[in-house]
UniProtKB/TrEMBL annotation:
Its main location: membrane. This is MFS transporter. Keywords: Cell inner membrane, Cell membrane, Membrane, Symport, Transmembrane, Transmembrane helix, Transport. It comes from the Bacteria. It holds the Pfam family MFS_2. GO terms for molecular function: symporter activity. It is found in: Cell inner membrane. The chain crosses the membrane at residues 20-41, 53-77, 89-109, 121-143, 164-183, 189-207, 242-262, 274-295, 307-326, 332-354, 385-406, 418-438.
């Protein structure tokens, strides 16, 4: 380790290789996560024979549990002081990815137990997946401030991350069910083989991320700083930009996950073409990729907040058009492409804005806690995911969904409302929240970084150190 860093961190440029490696992290994690987000509820209802209500309860309980495991991960990260050459965050990416892949696969194993045991086993497996996924993914996300302080490079990393996530989601959408369908004689075996393939690929991608990124600004908190789960809650409520971002993200992630969970039912029962899911995924996720690549340029021209609001507007308009005129396969795909194009800007900037709130928290409190801020933020995401998993299960029961049967008109209308109206309303709430209450713009952020650097230089001068050196540890 060295404690010397002589160039301006705000102008540091990352290599294309490192950005690619970072993007591979969310590509790999989404290969393992999205198979559950997209198909686990359908596996529960159609293969394990569970009522949709039970599937919703499993999602609710497990996601609430993993919301608190995120907090635990934040405490663990901010407590680390004996940091080796691997860095503060990278070891968790390497080692936690193995149990994530194993449990992601195990969730798609069928059994002949009674309903109570099936439900208990599914809940425990989902909770285990959430625990290990928290250790892996929270470390991955919290690592950004340690990689670069350049806000434009952070936007680039967020774009690469969202690009990786989108390609992972695209592959899950396009390829999972066709692989599963190859085992027409045993659909349950098809689910298991598909899950095994995606989890294995995800594992190798996480290892590629570990080997390709570098932590440059690893800061060790003072001995007086004692991290706790309460610190993560404090990190939210003492940090206004983070609080606003959490509320907006609560809405957008719930909307996005509800849409993903219901689309497999919508294509099968409303449009009567389950194979359309692959084509829809190909085109809509392609639109997301285009949007992701446009994010850095759009942010440079208009600023993060304006681009974020523009994405929400496209999202809401696309859903409204789909509800009114999306009754055919072609119109459904076209309007979905518009909505998903808007989500590209929203989901990318969710990650680009979090590191800015880390710096805001350091400016306000004098203590840098990437783990507490990031896991405080992901707590809201897990609560959102819990609701997004719970509500479709409950609503499928309420609208009278019957697995593998022709649905009545009321059920079909309920599916249309679930996939379009609910996400649209949540997107509008998020837009109002960000538009009215998020005040951390680019100009203010630059002033905050400048003041933080001045504080560090003054502190080093008081201790007789070279003012040209920073207080970070360079690995």
């Amino acid at each position: 380790m060295k404690d010397l860093y002589n160039h301006d961190p705000l102008t540091l440029k990352l290599s294309l290789r490192e950005k690619y490696s970072y993007g591979m992290g969310d590509f790999g994690s989404n290969l393992m996560l999205c198979i559950g987000t997209l198909y686990l509820l359908k596996f529960y209802t159609d293969e394990l024979g569970m009522p949709a209500f039970y599937g919703g309860i499993i999602f609710l309980v497990a996601k609430f549990f993993t919301a608190f495991t995120d907090m635990f991960t934040g405490v663990l990260l901010d407590s680390r002081r004996n940091i080796g050459k691997e860095g503060k965050f990278r070891p968790f990416i390497l080692y936690a990815s193995v149990p994530v892949a194993l449990v992601a696969t195990a969730q798609f194993i069928t059994n002949d137990f009674n309903l109570t045991v099936k439900t208990a086993l599914a809940t425990v497996l989902f909770m285990m997946f959430g625990l290990f996924y928290s250790l892996m993914n929270c470390s991955y996300g919290a690592m950004v401030p340690a990689i670069t302080k350049n806000p434009h490079e952070r936007a680039q990393l967020a774009a690469w991350r969202q690009g990786g996530a989108t390609i992972g989601l695209l592959l899950c959408t396009v390829a999972f069910m066709p692989i599963q369908a190859l085992f027409s004689g045993s659909s349950s075996l098809g689910y298991f083989v598909s899950a095994l393939i995606f989890a294995t690929c995800g594992l190798f991608c996480m290892w590629r991320c570990y080997s390709g990124v570098k932590e440059r600004y690893v800061e060790i908190p003072p001995e007086s700083h004692k991290p706790s789960i309460l610190q993560s809650f404090y990190a939210i409520f003492r940090n206004p930009p983070l609080l606003v971002l959490c509320i907006a993200n609560l809405c957008t992630l719930a909307a996005f996950n509800i849409k993903l969970a219901i689309q497999v039912y919508y294509t099968q029962y409303v449009l009567n073409d389950i194979h359309l899911l692959s084509w829809m995924g190909f085109f809509s996720m392609g639109c997301i990729l285009i949007g992701v690549f446009l994010v850095p340029k759009a942010v440079k021209l208009f600023g993060k907040k304006q681009v974020y609001l523009g994405g929400l507007t496209l999202w809401a308009v696309g859903d409204v058009l789909n509800f009114l005129w999306g009754s055919s396969s072609l119109s459904f795909v076209l309007f979905s492409c518009m909505a998903f194009f808007g989500t590209a800007f929203v989901n990318s900037l969710n990650w680009a804005l979090v590191p800015d709130t880390v710096d805001y928290g350091e400016w306000k409190t004098g203590i840098r806690t990437e783990g507490a801020v990031y896991t405080g933020y992901t707590f809201s995401r897990k609560i959102s995911a819990a609701l997004a998993g719970f509500l479709p299960g409950i609503m499928l029961t309420q609208i009278g969904y019957i697995p593998n049967a022709i649905q009545n008109s009321a059920t079909l209308l309920g599916l249309r409302q679930l996939i379009f109206i609910w996400p649209c309303v949540l997107a509008i709430i998020a837009a109002l929240t960000m538009g009215l209450f998020y005040k951390l713009n680019e100009e203010r952020f630059a002033l905050i970084i400048e003041e933080i650097d001045k504080r560090k230089k003054n502190n080093m001068s008081e201790h007789g150190l070279d003012e040209n050196k920073t207080s970070v540890i360079t690995i």
